[in-house]
Amino acid sequence: MASAKIKKGDSVVVLSGKDKGKTGTVTKVLPKEGKVVVEGMNVATRHRKPSQADPQGGIDRFEAPMHLAKVAVADPKDGKPTRVRFEDKDGKKVRIAVKSGETIDG
Is the dihedral of CA 9, 80, 77, 4 positive or negative? Predict the structure, then answer.
């Protein structure tokens, strides 16, 4: 299994779209679609008609998945977007922030 550059629980910066520049936490990763769900970002609304299951109906707000290319891992040092590289430390594969050289995990 290949290691993922962005994982659940990572702090990420949105690079484009309506939430550009905002920072959030990854709540879900969808590797097959190449998308991530970020807490509080890319909020979509759906107007629901009243039904038997939901007699009230109303407006549903939820975080829609966004493409992986729209987010970058936030540097642990200064919180700015950075790329990720992999290194072996003590026989363990760890993620390193390219900008600062800080270890993201491990």
Answer: positive
Contacts 24+ apart (CB under 8 A), 94-98: 95/3, 95/5, 97/73
Whole-model pTM?
Answer: 0.83
Tens-of-pLDDT digits for all 106 residues of the chain? 457 899 999 999 999 999 999 999 999 999 999 999 999 999 999 999 999 998 999 999 999 999 999 999 999 999 899 999 999 988 889 999 999 888 887 4
Q: How far apart are CA 10 and CA 17, in angstroms?
A: 20
Buried residues in 62-85 as b, exposed as e (16+ CB within 10 A): ebebbebebbbbbbeeeeebbebe
**Distance in angstroms (rounded) separating the CA atoms of residues 23 and 33:** 22
What whole-number distance in Å separates Cα of residue 106 and Cα of residue 94? Answer: 6
